[in-house]
Specification:
Blueprint (H helix, E strand, L loop, with lengths): L5 E5 H13 L6 E5 L1 H5 L3 H10 L4 E4 L2 H8 L7 E3 L5 H9 L4 E2 L16 E6 L12 H12 L4 E7 L11 H19 L7 E2 L3 H6 L7 E4 L22 E13 L4 E2 L5 E2 L4 E6 L16 E4 L2 E4 L9 E4 L11 E7 L7 H6 L2 H14 L8 E2 L1 H7 L4 H7 L6 E4 L2
Parallel strand pairs: 1-19, 2-3, 2-9, 3-4, 5-6, 6-7, 7-8
Antiparallel strand pairs: 1-10, 10-13, 10-17, 11-12, 13-16, 14-15, 14-17, 17-18
Helix pairs in contact: 1-3
The structure holds pyridoxal-5'-phosphate.
Length: about 400
Amino acid sequence: MYRTTFAIVDLSALAHNIRLLKGRLAPGVRLLVAVKADAYGHGVRPVVEVLRREGVYQVAVASLEEALQIRAFDKEIPILILGALGVDECVVAAEAKLDVLYTDLCPIPDIPRLPRPLAMHIPIDTGMNRLGFKSIEAALRVIETMAHRADIRFAGVCTHLACADAEDVSHALGQVERLLQAVQTLRDKGCAPPLVHAANSAGLLRGEAWQFDMVRVGIAAYGYSPDPEVLPQPELHPVMHMYTSITRVADVSPGETIGYGATYTAQCPMRVATIAIGYADGFPRILSNRGMVRVRGRDVPIVGRVCMDQAMVDVSHVPEAQVGDFVTVFGIDPPSAWSASAWRSVPPEHRANWLQETFALAANEEGRNVLSLSTVAPLAETIPYEILCQINRRVPKLYVEA
Ligand SMILES: Cc1ncc(COP(=O)(O)O)c(C=O)c1O
């Protein structure tokens, strides 16, 4: 390991969040965790291994490819594919013991006789206008077609809530109400769904009335409230922490400009630090002249444009800042053991280990603050989900069980 830009993925925080979320479930409600997009950028394999240990009922992905990636290392864990699949994909899904959603891409009569039974969930569009049946009569016709197939099992009905994290819950309540009506209609017609699920993280956090038989949680498992203002969740622990370091510190005189396009002009004498992270690492370019990182416990603004591999920050008010200092991109302050001289003294092949061990040891270190991704993401006009998913392969992920 040579470059000081990396992410720490704290698997004990993930386990903590899962236990906490399980504690919020009504008796008998199952927990599904969304691990699509490489487990929201955290790395699907280590995440699924923790979820299995923590007794999560099922995991969900967006595509057949993502599901097969999990099947390659876990032959048993129940997996639900949330995206639309074609007929060929349904055949592969059945072979690999993957549960699917019914969509118009895979009409039941077009599906050939399957080698193993395929569990199919029927999505009901209660107000998201993304996937699912708008008409319960149409859903019923498909469920009846399934009943004639020994190799296709009606596994349940689901919907997706568009506004469960909104201050005004009327939209979400309307969706819940329409789902209840749909379930009642199915029951009346003798097609009672074996499983009903609707709630995402926000739905789960809203309370038991939204949870039905199963909840599908994503962002809360990774440590974030879907909206910290509306549903504050201080007990959740962020799982990912991201760091880089200072590669240069320079004095900048009034009138000098910083970075591509000379978009920032110094108005007074400044100290500017260069950090080893850029948009090619998933650090959004939109943070140019508006984002911040944390140096020696203080928030420092990004000045000038974020480059592909580097960015510049104003450390005028952090006189101790120096080359080699670790910088928090988001997450908890670096452990006190992380110094430029310690990094240099550890051979490159041992650095990952050293970072993991010192991070775990510092778990109870006093006075460490968090630069929350819930603070950083809005500066990039986005949500933590997107930033987490976009941290790319160039950034090593170091797994820790603190
Ligand atoms: C169908 C479905 N269910 C559940 C989730 C999990 O949502 P969240 O991460 O907000 O909990 C997602 C995520 O986008 C989803 O698409």
